[in-house]
Records
---
Amino acid sequence: MSPRLHLGVFFTGVGPQLVWTDPAFSTHTHIDTFVATAQTLERGLFDAFFLGEGLRVRENRGRVHDLDVAGRPDAITQLAALAAVTERIGLVATQNTTYNFPADLARRLASLDAVSGGRAGWNIVTTDNAWTGENFRRGGWLPHERRYERAGAFVETAKALWGGTAVDRHDDLISVTAPPTVPARPVLFQAGDSAGGRDLAARHADVVFSANTDYDKAVAYAADLRRRLAGYGRSADSLRILPGAAVVLGDTPAQAAEKAAWIQREQVTGPRALAFLEQYWGKDLSGYDPDGPLPDIEPAEGELDPSRGTIAIEHRTGKAERIAGWRALAAERKLSIRDLVVEVTPQHSTFVGTPGQIADEWTRYVRDRAVDGFNILPQLLPGTIEDIVDKLVPELQDRGVYRTAYEGTTLRDHLDLPA
Amino acid sequence: MSVTRPHLALEVDGAGAHPAAGHAGPAGDIAALTARVTTAEAAGFALVTIADAALPPPGGPARVEAGVRASFLSRRTQRIGLAPTLHVTVTEPFHLATQLASLDHASLGRAGWVVGADHSAAVYATVGLPRLDGAALRQELADGIDVARQLWDSWEDDAIIRDRVTSRFLDADRVHHVNFTGERFSVVGPLITPRPPQGQLVVLGADTLGVTGRLDVALVAAPTVDEVADRARQARTDGAPLVFADLDVLLGADRLAALDAVAPWGPAQRLRHTGSAEDLRDLLERLAGLVDGVRLHPAELHVDLPRLATGLGRRPVTGPTLRDTLGLHRPANRFATAG
Ligand SMILES: Cc1cc2nc3c(=O)[nH]c(=O)nc-3n(C[C@H](O)[C@H](O)[C@H](O)COP(=O)(O)O)c2cc1C
């Protein structure tokens, strides 16, 4: 069988990605929006619908960050509701291993798998930061360098409980005495990109959800992961690679480009550009003109404020050097604050073009085994979802790289994972 | 005219209250539960409660977590309230509040919460927390309810403004840190979830937990009507807006001997009715003068529920929210700023 593309949608619920100023915007917090989205994706024969996790409302300098969409449900609760109104699509919850009790989370995931008839997935993240921990019983208890050790022990515990084995394990990272859950086998996703994250994926994950979307990066990443898999005695085919991707479709290339430019303008508004810099400067910059030069004042002492969400460790330190680099870049290319932010915001790769163009590009990715599919991060709701299902999916089907009907009933079936 | 008092609740976990009812079928049998709850909805029950525990009942199979069951049911029902048991003792208070708020959103305002207080050594061992009892346990429950209520209010109803002029999605002045400090945990907040449709979920709990003043509905389990009356009075004095009596029910007294031969029911821990539907209606009428509602625990759900459905003579409740059904007002937000 020639390789096939697997598609998911990552419904993040926070951050600048989702354009709420779009006149057609569906309230992203309303259950009806979730139901409509999941049902549209099921019509498009998607493998999975994902919910992200962020357990503290983002802030900017101690105040609730007010510019981006915010507000999201508990993922497992919401997916259980969606299980009742869908039949085939996989339902994946991002859940962290630091601020959960292993037996409790394993039980809830098994429950989702049970009520959905084998459609549950767990996107394993570590969320070790102490700022998020302030909402939990043991805030900040886990040192950053041990987060994947805890994650490994947590996942092993969950797998045992799902498989019918009681667990009695007590050490400095985990304390569980628990009987098995209802029988279950959620598909395991992993999203961390550090060596520890990749290693956890190689040991336990069925799917990786990476940020390595550009073709060359994707190829290198796949090679690295397959090497790690072999180290754990797993076959190269036992893991699916689904990088995150944004998609902007147009009837013509020009129309698509125009729409992509509009989306980016809406995503990087003047106030957002200033708020982005405030996070680094640690000072009020509201008096600066976002279309003018970078702030001339010196940033506050100390490292980066963690309150704008999960930040990879390498971005949490080295603030002064980063700001110096931006100043040099802005001076050299005469960038305004807004231009600079567009330039340096870590963006998920965006595919822009006609449905035919993107289908051609994706066909190459999957035939070369650079990826097994994509996890799409919608920018327009419901626009992105409807465009992809109605326009891109038929093109992929025409090229023979996308299913024309669900063959199985479980998420494991959809992903062609070993039984 | 259809009778609407007392309010009726139904416990739907397991196979029934009689020990001979055995355990529910295959653990993941959500289809059977869905059929039961839709029957209860058509029969005029105001809500179902879904008992749960981290550990399976002795000799029984592992259970599907009650919040997950309730959420699934939220999209298969239209009017009935859904109140899972979640235990304060062995969960993260922040997750608990988020899960319940999400259930209220998914059900468009039909969620309740039965406050669970499991505190056996075995259940604490599942999470590795130190075991609490007595006054420390009561304090933990009080803190768990208080922080959930604060978190449900942490977003004001109109916090999402989508103001293009100022580019603000939220009004940051209407999303509040709760800065809760309890005896054993603290939570900064706000919740990650906007305010639930009901503002506050309907919080139910036993009158024996020592937190009656924090409940919306106190559940009274006592074997005689006189004791129910006394305890109901006390619960009201302690501040519970509504009181429900727990009642075992077996319709058709002729079934009792056969069931008891398999496993004797034992002395009643709560009111118990074995007899006809007509006598049950009389009992309910009598209880209506003493309590606001009655929660039924059928001896065998698969036999007694269909009999209740025909025997109670009720129409489905109209909702739309559980608070509406129970006549509880939607509370003002404690953080709401004037103007
Ligand atoms: C595509 C993608 C999606 C992610 N989604 C989440 C999420 O929803 N919640 C979360 O806490 N972390 C999320 N993460 C963060 C990762 O779990 C991880 O913490 C981060 O990438 C840093 O990697 P490391 O933990 O291996 O250092 C995501 C990462 C990627 C690449």
Note: Residues 222 and 228 of chain B are 6 Å apart (CA to CA).
---
Amino acid sequence: MKSVFYAALLVAAYPFSAFGQTASDLLNAADTPQSVLTYGISYSQQRFSPLTQINRQTVKRLVPAWSYSMNNNTGEESQPLVYNGVIYITSQNKTVAVDALTGKEIWNTPVDYPPDTTRVVCCGIVNRGAAIYEGKLFRTTLDARVIALDMKTGKQIWSVKSGDAKDGIAMTSAPLIADGVLITGMAGAEYGSRGYVEGYDPNDGKRLWRHYTVPRPGEPGADSWPDHAANASGGSSWTTGSFDPELDLVYWGIGNPAPWNALLRRGDDLYTNSILALRPKTGEMAWYFQTSPNDPFDHDNITSIILADLTINGKPAKVLLQAGRNGFYYVLDRKSGQLIAANPYVKVTWATGVDKETGKPEWTETTKKAIAYTEEIQTWPHITGGTNWYPSSFDPRTATAYVNTTDYGMKYQPDPIDEIKNLKPGDSYRAVKISPIFNADGMRGHLRAIDPLTGKSKWAIPFKSPNWAGTLVTAGGLVFTGELTGEFIAVDSDTGKILWQFQTPSGIIGQPVTWEHDGKQYVTVTSGTGGVYVLKTPDPNLAHVPPGGTLWTFKLIDE
Amino acid sequence: MIRAYRACRPPLAGGLPFLRRCTTGRVVLCALCLLVGATSRALAQDEAAARGERLYAKYCSNCHGDDLQNNSGVAFDLRRLKADEHARFVNSVLHGKNAMPSWQGVLAPAQLDDLWTYIRAHGYEQ
């Protein structure tokens, strides 16, 4: 069945396979560790590489091969793609192709946008990466366009306007190519936009479908907004989903309701803070699972979604894993959306647990207060969440997830109703006063090795500033990630011991990848501080971390 | 939260030089100020700064840092603005600069004044 399916795709893709990878290349991405073909490294987004040349023993010989200036000061969150000896990478103001072995620029295509664009960019002036397919590179822009460039020359082939700053919409995430459709999300729940996920024809940019994430009166889910389905807003979709080709389902994380202040929006507020299982060809929803109904805390459910095969009670299970921003680690049956496990992986005080049958959180008294009164409360985790957009990785051999966590709480107080009753798209849709409550030990974050079924950490290493970078795990027994103070680190995946580190010129908020060329393994990552934590949160530990984007590639030096 | 703002400062850049030398704090200790009847003006300044603080939290803090505390260098540290840079401030805020958005049509002139009062009250160089 599976091979018939793959063969059909191969035939479909054959005429276009002259340059740029095909649909079948994408399906096999996990088994072609030489390249990095898609966001998440493979459709399952495990960010696991079977490469072993760089390992616990050899990592001490890891040295820079080259570095390249991104000529951008606003932060580098982009995941590099590596194909046929070329690295493709984005920042908010450009897309570039760089020779993977020498670090020499091949082409550089600027991104321009109107001056009012970043009014509705809440959380870092960034872009998180591209998709490549049949000779084209696809990316989104801050002024909410989806564009296609020629992979050889960087010349623009098409550009489509998806949303507008006036409606509170921006775009920062990497598109996903699934079943021949380009799928993308948008940002803007902090500005009252109405969220959606979209599918485009990669050939010409024709929009094939738009799936709104919050309903209008009469639509499914409208009764979960008893106060005002007519203006239901939020539910942005600002990270990249994963894809199960066999089930033909794309899994997309959907963000918080708007405004954060919940005084005027009772009900579950579907489909905010949910995972949606969508058909890639049509955008039709097969199922949804909501993590934080009626959320006042911006527990924006956009953290990375990992597809894995686990053994549960002796039986094989096709699951979906998500370290939720609300502090619970979720394991779902990815065919049905049924909850299998939900356990806290950081300190959680807003709910005492999650009901196994309904999947609903059991609220504490402080949460009940926070949705109804303007009194100040204290709660964990902070709006930043137990983790955030930066993706985690998963080692399928040990069933362990490697997650950078933020470990602090907040004082929280909703503004009075007067502040929210006349909001319109484009306005600031927060309307709450928040200040962080940090731990006495001065440690604001950890890198954790988590058992998805229990949420428990096998090990955890503390950091003064939370790591705002993705993780990568390899069969060489290493977890790669970066610190906001610039250290690029390799950690023993069994023990949590830092085995190697390299000081890059700025803070790391990027996504490490590894690849192979002529039998040699390389590791690539960006440096360049930014992102919402760094911009907004006072942190004395970051006083001497200058901005400035660079792209780095490392290899083993000969013995 | 309203902090102690420098009393006796003129609303915008310029003004009489002796007024600039007044003491920091809500209580006006400066006899000269009393002489020129500036107490009510000081209170007006406090109110403008408090309005500016709210505007800042809403429109600017996500890039320029909570309470003006900017540890990234990604966006300009607004505490660096000097008394004679009012024109630069207005120009940048209305028209934008690179990733810095334009705010024309969103912020009214009076709101720009409130923001300026708040920012200057915390300036490195008074």
Note: The domain at 21-556 of chain A is CATH 2.140.10.10 (Methanol Dehydrogenase; Chain A).
---
Amino acid sequence: MLAETIILIFRALFETLYMVIFSTLFAIIFGFPIGLVLVLTQKGGLLENLNLNNALNSIINTARSIPFIIMIIILFPLSRIIVGTSIGSTAAIVPLSIAASPFVARIIETSLNEVDKKVIEAAVSLGANIPQIVFKVMVKESLPSLISGITLTIINILGYSAMAGAIGGGGLGDLAIRYGYQRFRTDILIATVIILILFVETIQRMGSKLSRKFDKR
Amino acid sequence: MIMIKGLYKSFENEGQEVEVLKNVNLTIEDGDIFGIIGPSGAGKSTLIRCFNLLEKPNKGEIIVDGVNITKLNGKKLRDFRKNMGMIFQHFNLLQNSTVYKNIAFPLEISGYSKDFIEQRVLELLDMVNLKDKKDAYPSMLSGGQKQRVAIARALALNPKYILSDEATSALDPLTTRSISDLLKFFNKKYGITIILITHEMDVVKEICNKVAFINNGRIIEWGNTYDLLNFPKSIEIKQFVNENNFKIDKEELFKNVS
Ligand SMILES: Nc1ncnc2c1ncn2[C@@H]1O[C@H](COP(=O)(O)OP(=O)(O)OP(=O)(O)O)[C@@H](O)[C@H]1O
Ligand SMILES: [Mg+2]
């Protein structure tokens, strides 16, 4: 009985980790370029293009105003196309990544915008091209802020993953609802909550520490 | 040699065109330390930023060693900029990079080998007397040290020209002196042509062989430092020189400039 419960919890934990890690990874892969384009095309940006900037902003705002639970329902059919199924943790990664991308784009945008314009200008005056300015100046200078932003993203995706779990994605959220809530297994409910608290705490601590480590200002 | 011919620059301010540079004409000879002085808002920074096209002029030509650089873009512009280092009032160093990495930056983006970069950075650190600060971050340095890092960075690619926009305005008088001496040293030793903006008459007196006075976007007068400060033709310069105690005596000039 106890062994069974432990296996149940560990499987759920594994599913959650799997969902969170890959969703964060894909959300950054999609969100980073969008955030970067937002910064480069804004007024006074290195590739100023207000039409493109306005269009991107509208898309992001629209996407972010859709409640996440609705977003998942809309996007689950897409999972079937991309990963061949709309049930399970792998299927949940698709809506999680897409739903978190606009959030990541904003985080990246905010972080990159914190970089002193004068430092960027110094790089321009030294003959740097745009990729060099992006990676060697903007990303490097805003690394502490980017790390804090990604930490926040992971914690947010963890919260989203619990919702995704509830509609077929598996993981700790799913476990808490199916066993803890529907079958009155208070022990499982408490265990999942404790694991989630520890999870958030660990990520936050690691994120803050790493962010401070790279901050030499 | 840099020749500026009929340069105009205007900014759009709330739908209104404001002319900031009006028909600027100047010639800067190789080996000059060319000072630009004038009241706040006169257009000094805008002018110096046109030299490396951080601002694009609306009209006119900037001919650097025979090439009209106002037409340059893309790789040609970036390569041109590598021949014209720039230093700033607030240093503008990479905060999250060490002194070494800051100075290595222009070399890295130009694709030099690691060995060459190391050798060159150490050489530069030696020139600006900062060998022991190699691994420090800018936040750990004094203003004068930061500016020396910035100078080393600006010199890393062996530019023929250096632009300086109030590089000593954030520094105390003693540090100002050490920075202006350093600029003069590089001018004398390597023949680097320097164009500098300053509000400090000591800097002009001590290192500039030529000076231009700009007011309201126009060059009022320019030429030999001694003549311009002591026998200005225009009343505006007379006033400015008096207000700022800009006069110099010939002995001082010979002591410092020749
Ligand atoms: N990007 C800009 N957009 C609009 N107006 C500008 C811009 N840059 C400069 N100006 C205006 O151009 C004029 C000249 O500015 P500039 O910075 O060249 O003066 P300056 O001589 O360097 O002054 P200071 O001694 O205070 O540094 C000012 O009236 C300023 O408000
Ligand atoms: Mg200025």
Note: The first helix of chain B runs from residue 44 to 51.
